[in-house]
Amino acid sequence: MKKIKLCIMLFVIALAYNCKTESKKDLAYAVESKTDTNGLSYESVANDPTGLRLYTLDNGLKVYLSKNIDEPKIQTYIAVRAGSNYDPKESTGLAHYLEHMVFKGTDEIGTADWEKEKGYLDQISDLYEQHRAETDPEKKKEIYKKIDEVSLEASNFSIANEYDKMLSSLGATGTNAYTWFEQTVYVNKIPANELNKWLKVESERFSQLVLRLFHTELEAVFEEFNRGQDNDFRKRYAAMLDGLFPNHPYGQQTTIGTGEHLKNPSMVDIHNYFDKYYVPNNMAMVLVGDIDFDETIKEVNDAFGKFERKELSHPKLPKEDPITSPVIKEVFGPTAENISLAFRTDAIGTKEEKFVTMADMILANGTAGLIDLNLNQQQLVQNAGCTTTFLKEYGYHTFTGTPKEGQTLDEVKLLLLAQIEKLKNGEFDEWMMDAVINDLKLSQTQTYENNSGLANMYVDAFIKNQDWKNRVQFLEDLRGITKQELVDFANSFYKDNYVVTYKRQGEDKSIVKVENPGITPVNLNRDKSSNYLTSFNEIESKPLQPKFIDYKEAIKETKTDNGIKVSYIVNEQNDLFNMNIIFDMGSDNDKKLGLAAGYMEYLGTDKYSAEELKKEFYKLGVNYYVSAGAETTYVGLSGIKENLPKGLELLEHLWNNAVPDQEAYDKYVESIAKGRKDNKTQKGSILWNGLMNYGKYGENSRLRNIFQVSELQDMDPAELVEIVKGMKNYEQRVFYYGKDVEAAVVALNENHKVADELNKYPEAMAYLEKETGGNVYFVDFDMVQSEMLFLAKGDPFKAENMAASTLFNTYFGSGLSSIVFQEIRESKSLAYSAFSGYSNANKKDDSNYIMAYIGTQANKMPQAVDAMMELMTNMPEAEKQFNAAKESTLKKLAAQRITKSNVFWSYERLKKLGIDNDNREEIYNTIKNMTMADLRDFFNKNIKGEHYNVMVIGNKKDIDFKALSKLGKLHEMDIDYLFNYEQPEELKM
To answer: Which of 27, 180, 273, 953 counts the highest number of beta carbons within 10 A?
Structure first.
């Protein structure tokens, strides 16, 4: 009886203690309701480091406001709680396609004569309904031909890209949107002085939907679908989701949609979706940046408060049964083999989210997790990791691994499962629980000081119906989890309830290929403007004055006791620091330096094993790195300021006392060899590294100047260790960003010992840029799209050309309202991605380059090439568009602020160009006075008539080689030869 009473008493005491603890936590993060000077109510959370004000307008629109005055800009998001989960089953991809169409304007924006245009758009809508219902392929083609004809007529009254022109005229950057399962989100970053005009155009934009220029945009979306078919990661991911969610749209409806549905759209369905979900009580606006809270919410309310609330219900989505045995999925493609394991979890905001988050970090945190130490550090696999995703209704914990040479995917699977077993057995140190929280806190701090990162967190909370209070106190909730509780959870959660997805090399027989529909180019009407645009341009905002940096004043200098120069900038934001010991030499000076720097990752000392060192750094909340580039090597630390001295002491201990390890070196060489093999399966690396470097340099390039594997195997690892240790004997300098500079210098004096006389750097290897022109370099690759890169060597770098090239790129080749984008995508629908630009050199003695890129279906490539080359030969001149590009460029420069550690790194880049001042001032003043004639002169001198090397990657079976041969002598390249992975051999022809 006493025992029972004692147990009851202890339970009551424990319960009282827990209630008291919870009460304290609730008080610490209490939600407070307040009223601003406008009489509008908002909520805030006590001790919220982001300072959020959350308003709910009378019509239900949520408005998230947070202030950061680092720069005079505002990160904006307009979020809709609707994504591909709510696509009709017969119209998958609808939400994503709608996202594209919201950029096309309204009955006010983007039209020269709405009444006439509307009649044609109604015809097109009716034709698409007929097209969708028709089952006879030939009759469908006839209907599509009619759609094409009517679309051309409709384009006589449409004006392309007016929304983009208006946003560009504000100086907006990052104009884009994205769709996922539960959300569609529209993104801009605007100068703070343009908020009112931005609100004006956005309130008009979301007031109604007009589906103009529909069939050309549909082709662009299908090209995006093709890019997905060429992405093995996406295919593996989709297969994994299909296994995890056999009933729920998470696994059964991809955001891009099916090929069949994309080719048979319904404009009626799209309008219905917009009318149902694009309502204020299902939307949020997020504004983070240089704002005045009370003025901003008044302007938002004036612009969006007039939108009418509508009754709204979201579909009730299917529930999933538990997974009771492993589900096996398999996908094929050309890239390297890999494997994923995924466990389905509860949704965001649940207890399970907290435990899985902790488990994920114990397993892999990039430094001292079980996977980090036991698999990556030990080099038992090529690479491995894990990550979490928590959605509105479910989540998943995903483990991925890539095998070493000769290792099977199942062997990687067993190694991953073994790490989960170690978690279940509690085979990790108790201190890891606190270290993980500190690591997450550090990442959170970095996110909070970035406007885009913070705005994304607000969007995530809104979309997933999360109270901000719960997100603010999330890390404190994690602190309450004990090691034993985590182990108990792991044993109850991680069983045979996973989906395993094998990504194997081989032909993907599910690929969907379509005919080129033969779209007639629509009219862009660049010379026209809607009445809305004309009146919009007449609205004047208070000018924003640019601010330029006096680098010599902004970057302070001191010295260590041994005479090393320390450049520093004080971190005014938080207690994080970053310290770099900089050597102005790299692999160009010593070919083995990069190899040696990478090897250090796997070494211990006479005191610590490699794994113990990782743990010691993680305990301190400090990261270290040794990074050797072509021209510069960095030995650095970052983390929490108070632990800098101990972190530097530990780094110097490793630097001075690293012990060569032959076994680790042998595995390191094996990893390099496997990395090269895998690299040959990555089309992005083949095009942008292999082919582009060959197009610039030919055989003599940094990319090809590598050690063969047999040479690596013959090396003495002790020599590599001595190379890193010997770095201390060379000239060096330090950059420190953080607080308490004096303490940082004291730490350097105590720990960073160097010789009195430091060595000069070895002479650097030189790489000669070849003349371009007359060559087509082709690589055969199993892919749906084809990608093409044009490259022409220009004049050596000239600082005086930077203004003209900046304006040219805005007007001609980059951005949604550029000439290239309009002509190739908007008018002709020849590519999803196409851009061109004048690329300035990174060093004063190097050449500038003219570049152009096209990614499209192989059967559209000849037309796309002709269109691009015509533009690169004869630049279309549109005075209104030029003036808009000029205004946009000036406003972007006026709103740009180089802050924090970026001040130092931007100065480093300028010095390489032979510039010792903030040349943005000269660029700004030059652009102010530029005319269309000046841009024409720049084009004629630097772009027109240039001779291009053309790099192409695509499926040999689909390529029109006759068309390619018109561009120059055709060379089919061997991938091993491109990267110098084998001895040179004759080029294939």
So the answer is: 953
